[in-house]
Amino acid sequence: MPYEPPTPPAGLPAELVDTLNEASPEQLRDVARYAEGLAEHKEREARLEKESDEDDVEERPDDLPDDVPAKATITIKEINDNRYYYWQWREGEKIRSKYKSPVSPDE
């Protein structure tokens, strides 16, 4: 029974199949390594882009006041030996803060 060459995938363009058929075994192995690396790169780029798109959709915390932007973070400030949570965000060159609550509920 004679050895038959592999059948190319149906989705490959005819020009690419012709080029590959003319390549040496060494060139084909180089192409295979390159194609695998390129596929991994493109998958990683697509995944990172998808994650970036998901990060762009900011959810407002339930306890975030209307006058505080969604990008605000919570910080702790100590005043007269008492600790308090504050919403904090940047507006241009200034850092803005708004009181949230005491760190310990009994304060």
UniProtKB/TrEMBL annotation:
Domain DUF6788: 47-106
Protein name, entry field: DUF6788 domain-containing protein
InterPro entries assigned: DUF6788 (IPR046738)
Bias (Acidic residues) ranges: 51-66
Ranges of Basic and acidic residues composition bias in the record: 36-50
Species lineage: Archaea, Methanobacteriati, Methanobacteriota, Stenosarchaea group, Halobacteria
Region (Disordered): 36-71
